[in-house]
Amino acid sequence: MAEIAGHTIPNRSPLLAFLERWFLTTNHKEIGSLYLWLSFVLFFIAGAMAMVIRLELGQPGMQFTDPLFYNQMVTMHGLIMVFGVVMPGFVGLANWQIPIMIGAPDMALPRLNNFSFWILPFAFTLLISSLFMEGGAPNFGWTFYAPLSTTYGPPSTDFFILGVHLMGVSSVLGAINIIVTIFNLRVEGMTLMKMPLFVWTWLITAFLLVMVMPVLAGAVTMMLTDRHFGTSFFSAAGGGDPLLFQHVFWFFGHPEVYILILPGFGIASQIIPTFARKKLFGYHSMVYATASIAILSFVVWGHHMFSVGMPLAAELFFMYATMLIAVPTGVKVFNWVATMWRGSMTFETPMLFALGFVILFTIGGFSGLMLALVPADFQYHDTFFVVAHFHYVLYPGAIFGIMSAVYYWLPKWCGNMYDERLGKIHFWTAVIAVNMTFFPMHFVGLAGMPRRIVDYSIAFADFNMVSSIGAALLGVTQVLFLYIVIKAIRGGEKATSQVWEGAEGLEWTIPSPAPLHTFETPPQFPAPEEAYKHE
Amino acid sequence: MTSIKDTLKKGLTFLLLLGFTPLAFAAAMDVRPGVTDMSREIQGLHHLSLAIVVVIGILVFGVMFYSIYAHRRSKNPTPATFHESTTVEVIWTLVPVVILISLAVPATMTLIEIEDNSDPDLSILITGSQWKWHYQYLDSNIGFYSNLATAQAERDNLEPKGTNYLLEVDNVLVLPTNKKVRFLTTADDVIHSWWIPDFAVKQDAIPGFINEAWTRVNEPGLYRGQCAEFCGKDHAFMPIVVEVQEEADFDQWLEDQRLAIELASGQAVADRARTWAMAELMEIGEQVYVEHCATCHELDGAGQGSTYPALAGGEIPNGPMEAHMDRVLNGLADTEMQAWAPQLSDLEIAAVITYERNSFGNETADLVQPITIFEAR
Q1: CATH number for the domain including B79?
Q2: Which residues in chain B are closer than 8 Å to A451, comparing Cβ atoms?
Q3: B371: which of A331, A420, B140, B179 is 20 to 30 A away, CA to CA?
Q4: Do B305 and A136 touch (CB under 8 A)?
């Protein structure tokens, strides 16, 4: 019998208590952990699918799959990585960090927070269950172009549509919660232009989410009515327009790719100053650059569609607008380098991942600039050059961003330091493997290998073998990451409240591990020197 | 004596190869130069943009690595405190703008040339369908399908793969040199994309739309490409092969095609006129089935799930003949089962229907003659 406030309540089974705690929690830290674990689990599921893809592409000929199953793997890998790994990963970080970085006791809408998380496991169960359906899972690529996905889609397409709707609802609710929290719950004295950059990038990301997820919902709803209610939005035979789909999709899709990277910019902007022991260079220009990138993202969607037969004027507009994005992105990279300049740097694992992020994301940015040039894009478009480009911005970009954040804040979350030696091994193997996997893809793309093909000409064999070996190594390194995280949670050297010598910000003034409830009384901002030192 | 000569020869070859290896390696990592003015201009643009980003990369990463080396705590224990400079910010905003303009100018010039589709000498309508191309010479009565010619056994690793594995077709598109050829692209079912890297032409083929692109090839030869837009199950298996011939050869080819069409129509009349025996139809039918049907319905007629129904014991091949003929001739709307009436001759359709009704354990003993197909069209 347990006693709470003088009342005896009946003993409950530990299982029930466990379920009740995690299903009903409205605590931002617990919900943050839920998001991060979901993201982690889906990372391994979608990663296993990537392994199947690379296994098949290891050499020419049909080895392990058939074309139908291969296409399902390509589609599900993309969908789960984008919607199930990177987005929930960043939302998890936002849930954990934003309240403790702005001195708030919790998110502004805790019950909504619970709801937005718990939609996701159902959405992904729906999506993944379609693998076991008659006719198989969606097999039309994560971009699900009509009419391949409408008229010719498998029956499971309806599960996919419902799944996307649920993910969209979850994302919009989560984004609203983040916006409301940031606008209303900042500690006194923290004006907008004094917010940590991670908070700033998330605020902008949340606006992008609110604006574009409904567009995606519109696209899948039109698909649904085309499939079942006799409309012809995307069917030329019924007077509709297959290209309308691509315009709607990419109007969502391009801001979406910045949703997948902006919080990563924020993370690098937190970590690099900490380990350089020097304030972030050009804070204001960082904020303006992020906002410019977000605004420009709404007027560049056409660069995904240069080969659909757009008029010259439209091609020129989208080319110039896209090239313009290089300017604010360049400003960010230069500012990171200037932050490092004449700092006093040490290279713990979070810093290593942040530097890997800056360098390799920049390489992805370079190929992005090349892709913006329309004539050259006629050669690059829909080849492995594009696959190389977006994996450079997403793997060593978004994923490395999340990993550096996990190493950076994990001691705050669980109170223990992770194993630094293993962390460094993880970084170096991941960096080697990621380049071995994705760099050769540039070459096969330039040589003429289209993307999304199950089998290829023998001329592309050597580089594909290198990619596949790299991918296998990359898969193994992430198992090491899981081990490092679990090991740190189970024990290790105790972390101080500041954790990192150069760390600044409210989150480093609370004890490690962070107690379930923090900042029930608002802290002083900016935090005085001694606030970091208490134990 | 000979052995010394051989050794010398081998040694020289080795040295030669050694010299060429970096070149060959660089070529393997480059965009293809191609055989048109446009493809070379685009390669030039690729080199220019690559050079610019490599230089920027070396500068930025150079500064960064120097900082990583020189501004580590062991070498620089006390960090500097600067964190702002409007001058610097303005410089590194404006300099990239200038660099971008230097890239945008040549890109715009090339693009304007590419988009000038006026005054073609020859127009070809290219229609993509799952998973083959159809070519129609709009200035003459010539049109044909172009299918993958690589044997299934090579794809299944049962036979060694040829040099042009997956990049070979039964009927190549033939073009003349030195003529402005306009391609009009469209599609029957889903979106495809017609791409020959050596021409630097990639144009989506979209149902309900007709897109334009053009090329002018100066060198005769065989050029290979693939469908570039993801189009479903056999996206990897719809290659494109173009044979560019000298003008005189091309005119001869056109004439040969005209004759072949006349011959074929004469042959079709003859085929209709006679009555075919079961064994004959079964033999032709098997060839047609392997070439066109087996990719979805499988060699043993087992099909693949509900998307590609089994023919073994299937409803259609064991049901009424009329329904079977209708399905093969007209296909099934909104599925990957396409209409074969425009693609196959009366004899081929008669043969494949006969084959399907009497194979894979189906024992209808039905037989259909080409004349019946002709009347049903």
Answers
A1: 1.10.287.90
A2: 230
A3: B140
A4: yes
